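Work Package 4 report. The design task specified in the project plan requires that, given a folded chain encoded as structure tokens, an amino acid be chosen for each position. We show below one input record used in the internal validation round.
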């Protein structure tokens, strides 16, 4: 039951408890209690709204910043990651494989703001050896949602 609930609300955080209850063959109270229990256990960590800022008339800059760090004794990457994720501008921080150690996702309103964050806040962190910043130019799909208008079929409908 939990996996079905999690799969459903991951795609749509505005969960329709009645629809979920029907899918699971149970009642809404049971579903609501299960969701509340998973929130308490921190299995469900939060709910998010996906916004197309371009359509909202506000240009949002999303930057992916690769960060190479020197891991700290007895704490590896955790302490550095904590320092980075505590910056309010930071949307996400991931430990990654490859040529860099951390992926920092940052959202801001201007390229200048993002570059100032990198140069004034991120680069001075002692354990950071180097960074590489990439900007998202266009989102085609985000969190499982297609962000571009779907093309309508150009074929003519033929009926007998």
């Amino acid at each position: 039951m939990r996996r079905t609930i999690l799969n459903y609300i991951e795609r749509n955080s505005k969960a329709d408890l009645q629809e979920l209850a029907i899918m699971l063959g149970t009642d809404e109270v049971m579903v609501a209690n299960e969701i509340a229990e998973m929130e308490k256990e921190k299995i469900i960590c939060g709910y998010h709204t996906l916004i197309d800022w371009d359509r909202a008339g506000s240009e949002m800059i999303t930057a992916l910043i690769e960060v190479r760090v020197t891991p700290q004794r007895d704490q590896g990457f955790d302490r550095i990651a904590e320092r980075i994720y505590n910056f309010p501008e930071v949307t996400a921080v991931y430990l990654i494989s490859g040529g860099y150690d951390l992926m920092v996702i940052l959202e801001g309103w201007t390229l200048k703001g993002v570059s100032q964050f990198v140069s004034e806040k991120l680069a001075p962190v002692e354990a950071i050896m180097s960074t590489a910043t990439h900007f998202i130019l266009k989102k085609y799909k985000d969190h499982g949602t297609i962000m571009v208008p779907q093309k309508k079929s150009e074929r003519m409908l033929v009926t007998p």
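The chain is about 30% helix and 20% strand. Validation will be extended to a larger panel in the next phase.
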